[in-house]
Design a protein that fits this description.
Shape: elongated
Structural class: alpha/beta
Number of helices: 7
Oligomer: single chain
Helix content: 10-25%
Strand order of the largest sheet: 5-6-7-8-9-10-11-12-17
Number of strands: 18
Distance between the termini: 78 Å
Length: about 400
């Protein structure tokens, strides 16, 4: 019987010597084996059967393939534990016991935590990925879709699918609950789905690379990925950033160079970055006159939406129609902190990017570090009080 697991051998003598165990297990093969006695067994009294060989635990690692033998005593798996208990009592073990043999190197292949594949010829077509993988890179493999076998790797922390031809991401990527880094650089993606933004990636994803794709816009729900620290959006076709960008409070590195951004969202000024690169966008000059979309009195829809959002009343498609949920999700935030749906004043100002980032890449070849920011005002009073900002 064999059990593939992580094993830590603890010595009870160490504390008495003032020493501590490493506290870290190693990948190993745990075997329940039959140990041949050194001397011929004596006949046992009472008519009991003799010649029974004692069972032992054999722990084999990649560095110690011959293994180290221990007296059989316990195991975590029910079947293994049952056989261990019988062996420990001296009873016959129904399960076949192995002879003491050297463990093959292939026994440890299942314990791989990292696999890097950078060509089509090395891509496994008939063989599954090792279930223990924590880091998987499959670049330059000509993939047109995400291999569903990857989605069963529940220990995956880093997934690199760069330099392929992937056009769409399955929502089930969000089931990789430990995924911290996702690299999709140089593919053919045109969108990043709402389903992914609302998946378990909200709590796990730290780094996301979507550079060199064909993405024109990110959903407003993208800002629910609030654990993001690194975000790369270079060389896409972005015409805007999510206007709730300021909710990404953990974001420290942002790169969105060579896109088609005409301005930045108003909440952009709430970011606190270490590095920012917005070079090569088509930033527009701030407009002198604001865009006025005020309507008095407010419509019932506008008034209700403001009340729901201001009082943080829970809503969802099970409570109100889906299109109203979308309206609430895309509501603008006034500089005063209140919300507005379709009744607002829109103005544009210029912001020095050093106010949100320690290191700023120049936005153009002229050495500029300023970019236009669009702001929204829920009333004329808010606009008048903010005139100094819009000068």
């Amino acid at each position: 019987m064999k059990l593939h697991c992580e094993v830590e051998v603890v010595s009870r003598h160490l504390p008495a010597l003032g020493l501590r165990n490493r506290g870290k297990g190693v990948r190993a093969v745990l075997s329940l084996c039959q140990q041949a006695p050194r001397t011929q067994p004596r006949p046992q009294a009472g008519g009991e059967r003799g010649g029974r060989h004692p069972a032992c635990l054999l722990i084999s690692t990649l560095k110690d393939k011959l293994g180290t033998r221990y007296e059989a005593n316990s195991s975590s798996l029910k079947g293994f534990l049952s056989a261990m208990r019988l062996a420990h009592r001296g009873c016959d073990v129904e399960a076949p016991l192995l002879t003491l043999t050297t463990v093959k190197t292939s026994e440890f292949e299942k314990f791989k935590t990292k696999m890097v594949i950078t060509s089509k010829k090395d891509y496994p077509l008939s063989k599954n990925f090792p279930y223990s993988l924590e880091h998987l890179q499959t670049s330059y493999c000509g993939l047109v879709r995400v291999d569903m076998r990857m989605l069963s790797l529940k220990n995956l922390r880093k997934l690199d699918l760069s330099h392929n031809h992937i056009k769409k991401l399955p929502a089930t990527i969000g089931d990789l609950i430990h995924l911290q880094e996702l690299n999709l650089n140089d593919n053919h993606l045109e969108s990043f789905s709402v389903a992914l933004c609302q998946s378990t990636l909200q709590k796990s994803l730290r780094s996301l690379d979507l550079s060199k794709n064909k993405i024109k816009a990110l959903p407003v729900q993208f800002c629910q990925l609030q654990e993001l620290i690194h975000l790369k959006l270079d060389d896409n076709e972005l015409i805007r950033l999510p206007f709730k960008m300021g909710q990404l409070t953990n974001l420290r590195f942002l790169s969105a160079a060579r896109n088609k951004l005409p301005f930045l969202p108003s909440e952009f000024k709430n970011l606190s970055l270490e590095y920012l690169d917005l070079f090569g966008n088509i930033f527009e000059q701030p407009k002198v006159l604001p865009v006025i979309k005020l309507q008095m009195p407010l419509t019932l829809l506008e008034s209700s939406a403001r009340t729901v959002l201001y009082n943080r009343i829970p809503y969802g498609s099970r409570i109100i129609p889906f299109h109203l949920c979308q309206d609430l999700d895309t509501a603008k935030t006034c500089v005063c902190g209140r919300f507005c749906l379709s009744c607002f004043i829109q103005g544009t100002t210029t912001m020095n990017l050093h106010s949100v980032a320690h290191t700023v890449v120049l936005v153009d070849n002229m050495g500029g570090t300023e970019a236009p920011v669009v702001s929204y005002f829920c009333s004329l009073a808010c606009y008048v009080n903010s005139c100094d900002m819009l000068k």
